[in-house]
Amino acid sequence: METDETPRVLPFQLQFDKPVASQIKIAEWNPEKDLLAMVTEDSKILLHRFNWQRLWTISPGKCITSLCWRPDGKAIAVGLEDGTIALHDVENGKLLRSLKSHTVAVVSLNWEEDGQVIRDDSVLKYEDRTSRFFPPAPRVPRMPGLVSGDTGFMDDSEDSFRELSNSSYQRFNILCSGDKDGSICFSIFGIFPIGKINIQKLSIPTPFVNEQATYRLLHASISKVALSKDLCHLIVMCSGELKHDEIEPQERQLGLHGLHCLLLDTSIFWKRKNELHQVAQQASNIEDLIEVIRTSLSVMSKQWSDAMRTFHEKFDSLSRLIVDHGLDSSPQEEFLSLLGGARTSPPIHQFLVNSLGELGVKRVSKVVCGAGKELQHVVLDHLQPASEIIGFRLGELRGLSRWRTRFQSIGLDGTLINDATEKSGMLLVQVERFMRVLSSVVQHFSNFFNWLLKCIKLLMQEPSDQLQPYNSELVIIFLKFLYDQDPVRPFLEPSEVDVEIDMETLQRVKELVHLGGFSDCEYLRRTLSEDFQQMESSFKEAFLMPFTTISRKILCKDVLPLFGLESSPASMSVSIPMSVTYYKDASTAISSFQTNEHGFIDYISFQIPGDSSSDIANCIGISRGFMHGLSNNNEESALLEAILLSVPDGYHCVDLSLYKEGQIVLLLNKTTAASESPGESCMMIVEANDLPFISISRSVSMNHWNLDQLKDSVMDLQLENEKVRIIPHSVVAPLAVSASRGLACVFAARKRALVYILDEDEDDVSDTE
């Protein structure tokens, strides 16, 4: 028993107490470093070091509803209210990628990687044995705005986009995202969508041999998703109404409305991780390059349109001068008359000498010819290399699709890949065709401007020996076919009118088809932009098949009804503290090579609200072994262990988090009536492994809450018997705990952040608040 002379030893050393400008609603520690990502109430993302030094602040401009770290700690995934998932670079907060995977708010994100490193000799690769005949793959194109998330020129050392793509491929990882309407999306490396399900459409089997029935979860809203470390299972915490699938709606069956825990079978990710790794890597590269081509076409279209606008703004004044002088001729006819040596008409003389002048010709020439050269650079440095790499990657996928025993099971269809490969080849043909047209047009414009400079010099009776030579025949061709027409722009924009092509050329193309290599005879009638759209469409169609195939193989294995909730909108909007994690199961005797169970055991913790309709309100529930309860098809094995901890009177749980092996961190607020009082709270660690878990029989009917079996054996949570730290502030969620670093960040209601060190030395630390 302590005496007054004995100093009170406080667990959990307080590292610092810092003010925060705005209240924090989401906080997560970096899994690898002492970095804390926080989201404020006004949806700004803050990144702080352990010493509270702020690295950067960004504002996506939309309401942020969830956040998680990439497993290597180099990127942050942010879920937004409109269903978008944004990936940000940890170094500077820059947007790396944005995916519109959902249509409503993304409320939960979980990014998990396979624990086994994929080495070069274990990854399935398409071995190219023709390197002596083909040049090496061109470098990935880069220019401002051409790479998703790129905002300007950067050095290679700052190329975060490449870092996102390459470093992720060292280990296979899956980003899971759940929204408030029950949809769950899966993305490999966080950038390649590979599956999507909705828990409301899943058929939920019963865990009992004597009841062969299925259930469905109606009006479901996801609270948390957690993928196991072996990628074989996904635990989903969700609210909704569990009803029998075979009972007709008119019977008005009263279902179980409350919090449920679903177990989904995602073993396809583990069984086919090598195949999915290879396909995702190639497909992600192709998607990146498609964005390069799309933005290249957009940049080129704008540059050329601006150049043509400048040309017509200068030369349209000639038409007005011709009308003002009462002549019935066109600008082309006036120029041809001047070229033929006829007497210079007054409007032409006035236009060339007064309106346009030598300086005006040089300016327009610089704009038009400069734009043509810029377009050529974009094609040679970006669009053409991107098209070539796409063809190269699709060729690799084409080879993989022929390995049917391994890749057909994930939906890689050889016919669709072949079609996409041909479309990429047609795009390369269109690129070559566009370059020929562009070079010819730029040459004609340059020749025309050289001739105009010669004419202006002669009209002004100035020496013209230093001028560039010109070709009269090319001037005639320009005036007849290019002066008021633009053959370049249709290539860069979609057109409803087919490109005119003579029948003789079309017949030659049809004859070439018989030689093999391609089957598209109509590509000459299309433009570069249209062929790009066709290639993109064929690529999406080819990878819709793996997406659909994987989605169908994700099934629900089990459901655990936890406790009831009121069905009112107010109760559904209340956030319930919960945490799901997986620990190494030391009792696992079977090798992971002999079974799909890779030695992990799940721990699920949650708070049962004080206003819950259940008889076990204001308790902390902890369960373990949910995903292992159905390893055998008999009732004796259909067991899981759980325990209920009663929160002490005068306290309520603010948040909780599973910590290290078998430990749970609880954050409790002391109930106080005085609003002016700063309040009091406490943080404590409970050793879950020391608790007397009780086995729950799964043979109970699905019409009852499973935790009701524990209402007669609730264990009181004794604050004096646990490691408890009293906090002289009223606290709010979230509680951010780092298991790898042994840290906890607590946020006081009066906008303060308190960081505690949970892992202590053998010598206890005594300090005061």
UniProtKB/TrEMBL annotation:
The keyword Cell cycle applies. InterPro entries: APC4, Apc4-like_WD40_dom, APC4_long_dom, WD40/YVTN_repeat-like_dom_sf, WD40_repeat_dom_sf, WD40_rpt. The keyword Cell cycle applies. It comes from the Eukaryota. Gene3D superfamilies: YVTN repeat-like/Quinoprotein amine dehydrogenase. Pfam families: ANAPC4, ANAPC4_WD40. Residues 28-113 form the Anaphase-promoting complex subunit 4-like WD40 domain. One of its GO terms (biological process) is anaphase-promoting complex-dependent catabolic process. One of its GO terms (cellular component) is anaphase-promoting complex. Keywords: Cell cycle, Cell division, Mitosis, Ubl conjugation pathway. Residues 260-462 form the Anaphase-promoting complex subunit 4 long domain. This is Anaphase-promoting complex subunit 4. It comes from Corchorus capsularis (Jute).
